[in-house]
Fold each of these.
Amino acid sequence: MSVALLLAFLVGAALLMLFAQAGEAQIGTLLGSAYVWHILRFTLTQALLSTVMSAAFGVLVARAFARETNFPGRRALLGLMSLPIVLPSLVAVFGIIAVYGQNGWLARALGAAGLEARPDIYGLGGVVLAHVFFNLPLAVRLLLPGWHSIPVETWRLSAQLGMSSWSIFRLIEWPMLRRYLPHAAATIFMLCVGSFAIVLALGGGPGAATFEVAVFEAIRFEFDPPKAATLALGGLALNLACLALAQGAVGDAVIGSGWRTREQDWGQRPMAARVLDGVLIGAAAVLLIGPVTATLVDGFTGLVNASLNWSLVGRATLISIGLAVPAALLTLLLALPMVLAEGGARSSKPAHAAILRAALILPIAVSPMALGLGCFLILRLSLDGMPRAIVGIVLLNAIMIVPFAAAILRPAVERARARHDHLCRALGITGWSRWRLIDWPILRPSIGTALALAAAMALGDLIGIGLFGDAKLRNLTLLLYDQLGAYRMGGAAVTAALLMLLIFVLYQVVERLVGGRAAP
């Protein structure tokens, strides 16, 4: 409970500092300006377009996966749907530029075919495309369990009755989607509203900015804390409204992993329907694999052609690891005690369990940039220079990753308590003895996965390093942002590929070392 109070205090103090820094007059003046309303319009426009495209395409792709259960590579492709979760936004942005930019793979292919085309990847179109890259897999993973929830007998009856594809959709699938689709769409909308790195890199200028980007620019380029605090409060209000929308749209849908397959009796479907499913699955695969492949290929090519300051790259790599590992450890120190306390209080003290669960999801309710700016304002009262930057980056990343680590740890804790609580009470096994002999062997794989995910997410941090970093403290993500901003695409290719490989290696090493052989 003390850890939950500490986390709530940190978040609350950061928000109070924002209010104090902004001031009532500043809030009224800035929030009523045309600048803020322009930011709000762009934020909602790009989020709405991204959500509609991601959700619509997600429905079609999830339906194709549900109908095609036996094609080679199905499980691997579903596994690829998890890649955007740990892939840093800027790495994906580079991959999208490498494929769809003015000198990208697509433009070169069209040029080779005699078609002169220079796609403009910057602006609203590029932002929406990048959001679809990230959120289409999420939509598929959220919607696919809906098809698995439909009883097999329903499919058999539809085949016996000879129902058409449209009748199946209208009478069987649409009632299911009415439960699952609102939650998926609301979640995607909330993520797009809070988007930072994608809009920062692909927005194309101050005319295309979200509240998160506006706060970053007000601090890093103008160093105007009152303006930044006011904008952060505006982003916080919008984020809370979207969170309420997402929570209200959950309904009674049961969100699963999307891995489980079930043989459905779809009858003798026309060849055209099977071809359409194949096209949809292939298009989704190309959308996901293309930028990743381009990043790796251009990265290895850049090793030969690009002129890089390798001492700068090496320093950025060490800084990335040096900041990510402490942030991951702090995440675990915050999340694990609260999850254990929540599990212990669920049956005996439900009110305490509810408070702990609320504390665990509290960072999601707060805009990352608002929380980061609040931490920045607090830390500058007592720290300066490098110590302030290091503490701020580690603390911000740890707080923001806590909900994701808790989501991994909670099922394992519930499983451990369900198996051994009664026996441990009967035998009087408590405290360190229970942890060492009973809980640790069961929780170790999940702890390893949670720690690895936290390290991977912290390794791709841009918000913390953007607020607290400087020329002496640049991780690979900030180095990549600088290279993209200066259009040094050769160096950016190498940095993006290195960051992607570093995340993969760090994830595997941490998960195996901490999780042991039982780690997935």
Amino acid sequence: MSEEFINKHIKVTGIVQGVGFRPTVFAYASRHKLGGWVLNSSQGVEIEVSGSPDAVSAFVCELRSSPPTHAVIEHFEVKELPDHPYPNFEIRNSTDQENNFVPVPSDLAICADCVSELFDPANRRYRYPFINCTHCGPRYSIIKAIPYDRPSTTMSGFDLCPDCAREYHDPTDRRFHAQPIACPVCGPKVWFQDSGNAVVEGEAAIARARELIQAGNIVAVKGLGGFHLFCDASKPEVIERLRSRKHRNGKPLAVMGFNLVNVNPYILLNEVEIKLLQSPAAPIVLTEPTERGKEILSLIAPDQSRIGLMLAYTPLHLLLLEPAPGFPSLLVATSGNLSEEPICYTQEEAISRLSSIADGFLMHDRPIHHAIDDSLTQVLHLENTQEYPIRRARGLNTLPIKVPEGLQVLAAGAELKSTFCLARQGRAFLSHHLGDLQNQETLSAYEHAVAHDQSLYRIQPELVSCDMHPDYLSTRFAQDFANARDLPLLRVQHHHAHLAACILDNALDPQEPVIGLTFDGTGFGSDGSIWGGEILMGNCRGFERAFHLQPIPQPGGDLAVREPARMALSYLLSAGYSSEELRPELSLYEFLGEERARVITAQIKGNLNTPLTSSMGRLFDAVSSLIGLYHTVSYEAQGAAALEKLAVSGVQDFYKIDFDDGVINQVALFPQILKDLRNDLSPHLISTKFHNAIAQVSLTCLIALREQYKINKVVISGGVWQNLYLLKYTWALLKASGFTVYTHRRVPANDACISLGQVAVALAQSKR
């Protein structure tokens, strides 16, 4: 062959299927007049091109620098081949090799082009609730198997009409191989049914749902990954009815708006928040309310200072929230479930479980293969403005995290904010948020998700890791899974997993020692007690417990989590106070009542069902009860959230806490707080001084460790660090003292990161 002609083979791995990679390759190859082919394989995308050296080089350069918008490239490999001319460039059928796999794409919010078509009367998909293209629409929620082709999705039951088939097979069309492609002729349908099973279809169904919402009713809507419950966010009586029916008391509710213009009167947004809201992941973003928005905030999140906002991310949502005179600008959009149960995702489930909540149902017949909730995130302003996730789910769950090469691992996670994690070939796949693993319904959803993702990523675990807590359902699942397959089981200490997760989240060396500020509510300790206020030293292989809060009796065990007054009483007794001297001045005694306070006191003194805890979360609970915020809570960390809301920026004063022989004497806080209460210091200043005290004692401990061990890197993990006041104040103190500080960026700081940490520890220890 001529020297003016070469062949090259290109293999691209990562999230490269379902994101328009093949049509992009086709367009670039055509532009550079190259022959060859492109196909999806079970490893990624494979390409062969032939042409002049300059043209091939230009093609490779363009593909490297300008891949499809939603692609996430991990490896881009180019090899020269023997010369072989191709008369043209073609897109070939997908190939599959057993045991190979490729990361699957996440569900994507509707793109601008599809929004334009949705509201264009001249377009054949005008007002069609399931409009999508290569750049948007369902992905993970409809995938049954890989490679990602239409027959392997829940769209396989919808035969393409001639117009859709033409688009689907045209490499120059925006809908080329868009697997969920559909139109009003051949695609899914929408209908509305009320409790009497009366049915209207199409546009009339959406109109009926809007009428009910506007009239103050609650409507269950089948969305992309499951059902939402929608209602008017501005009507107190409707919110109260929703909370009562859903058994969701004071827990925050999210809201949805049509677009940025529509939500502007209620929300203050910065550039990063706008970017997140309009991103393909379209998560719920915690945002600052305007004065008008504070009225909404008081209804949907009374203990919070920010509103959880998302924008309509599917065509059905856009049609449901379309602005019109009298129609509310913000709708509550909360998960379609009873409190603590998994989200409903089939019509049958919704009718069975949501009929007692919803006044009507907006349904559709596009099957959801795998339920998935909305992601929840926030923006953190430190040295740079960064995302700080709270719940990693729709739009984010399939993004792999780089881990060391090693065995294939299944990590079972914790109990609260439950996730699992699968690892293979240097990539970890953290599951979407599955909820609190405390009932059979959630356990069933968890088991289904493990089986689904294991099949999807073709992972056959060689090692299983889990939490040390013997009563976690995730631990029991891991034991059964490992026993059934004769696999080794590694039990990982909870806070070591937090430390390891933050190491991987920041791509640090797994073997380099760091200091870990790991503060949360509950974690089973190596000594069998309940940990939660831990300063660790270690890496992914192991750790030492350098400092911890003084262990305090937790009367009633888990009951004290639901009744912070119990922890407040325990702390007061530990500080040397008696009920008799404090009863007249503290409301927690009025809540408990004389007899119950006496019984709990005897329980603590007699060491009856009072496990010791060093939990930072329980300390926050106790202080919230002490100053009269919450003596009983309806959801985890409700008192701590209210305490954070009171804290005032700019105040430098703090309570004094000392430590001795690795034990932090946080009990010393209580005489100081009582003194301020007696002097009528405002709750705002008491909360601020308390928060500042935790930051200051953390700094003092870390300086002592640095002086002794010469470790300067600090990782911050654990659910307590979702408290942004505490996080920012602590970070500022540490940075000013010369520490290098790492926070979570891609995975939550709460227990959702535990399974990733378990993978990190498993891989590190398996290499010993």
Amino acid sequence: MAKRHRFFTTLPALILLASLSACTTVGPDFVKPGAELPAGWSEDGRRGIEVSPIEQPQWWKLFNDPALNQLVATAWAENNNLEIAGLRVLEARAQLGIAEGNIYPQTQVAAGSTAYSSPAKSAGGGPNGWTNSIGLSASWELDFWGRFRRGIEATDAAFFASMAARDQLLILLTAQVVDSYFVLRSNEELLDIARQNVKIQQRSFEIASTLFRNGQDSELDMQQAKTLLLSTKATIPGYEVAIKKARNALSTLLGRAPGVDSIVLGGDKVIPSFPEQINVSIPAELLRRRPDVRQAELAARAQNARVGVATADLYPSFSLNGTIGLAAAGTGNAAFSNLFGKDALAYSAGPSFVWPFLNYGRIRNNIRVEDARLQQALIQYRETVIQAAREVEDAMTGFNGARLQSEITVETVISAKRSNELSTLRYKEGFSDYQRVLDSQQALFRQQQNMLNSRTAAARSLVALYKALGSGWENRPQQLISEHSRSSMSERTDWGDLLESTQKQAHGAEPLPVLNQGP
């Protein structure tokens, strides 16, 4: 009875020690790193660009191309890399569950044993018999210095960072699909232009050949016409190869092997026209919109918590340990029946501590390692912000320049077409030599190519602009992983409700989540 009395008088002290374990958290608290951004963009005020909130997060729909919309939707549903990113979110969520479990008693063991012993007679002998035992033991390292809470803070940030990484991949995937589609349509248009010019030059070659055979013109004119015709024909295979490669790129982005499941694209084989007015957000909005900026901040937040985890190693760790069990020994059935008798109960409980005070600088150097990594993460955040601003500036500059060039080349093509008509007419009427015809046909083909290339450059710069602005992830797919993956994983492993709860959390995640900060 006295032993039990001492145990129950010690129990409140143990409970008090456990409650005190949640009162201290060592290590630095996270301070969001600053980022210097200009108040506005250098392209502010340029025609067609307005600094205002982006009203259409699904920016690719501004091109009003059903085929393009279908490609993006298919890529979102079937791209393999995007699904891998979703699985990494699940992985990070499971890691967070491990960290959260460290707050509770880390070791709980049920153990039992039975053994028959027969001592050697040469060693003094003794009775033969059985020894039986069964019991429970538990050990709980108290989070006195916030080691485990800092660990939760780090994995919590890593979990949200995995969501940001998936959002960033969604932006890159969408931009790649749209860009590949524009490359495809551009080469289809260039192929059509080349074929149209082949027809024009074929007719001129036939005229020059007829005049030469009738002795009305020199062979030089015929050969020059043939040279121009063949050089134009030589561009056709290059465009056909580029079209094939663009289709292969789209197949890969859609999670399909090239040639296995052919992509059927309807609509006109032309680059879609882009909107007259482009909305761009203010520079400060990048910090909220771009997932890679959020990911960099979350990486710094996680590393900041790891500094606290390392710092906790400087201090003693306190644990509560306890065992309770039954033990009995005897011969025959008595050994087992005595196991459940009133005198078979044995227990022990009490605190313990471990303090590696002679660590020869290892712990402090480990803290320095983690702190150096934290500083790297903070600088990487600033670098990510700077690069994000540069990408926006470059994309706006490229878009404005290419659009202006495209407008000029439209007028150039009109002039080249008229020049070709006049030179051909004057040649037929005998007022000019054939060189004028050759020059005008070469100029026409070249200017048509320039016009289309500049229009393609403007469209691709617009894609780069929306990618740089971090637009497109807001309407992320509701499905974190495919039904096939969900079914396979559920058959292999008991995921409980983690698949559903993580999917809901990932789909509704705020751009800047509020993470555990510790007390």
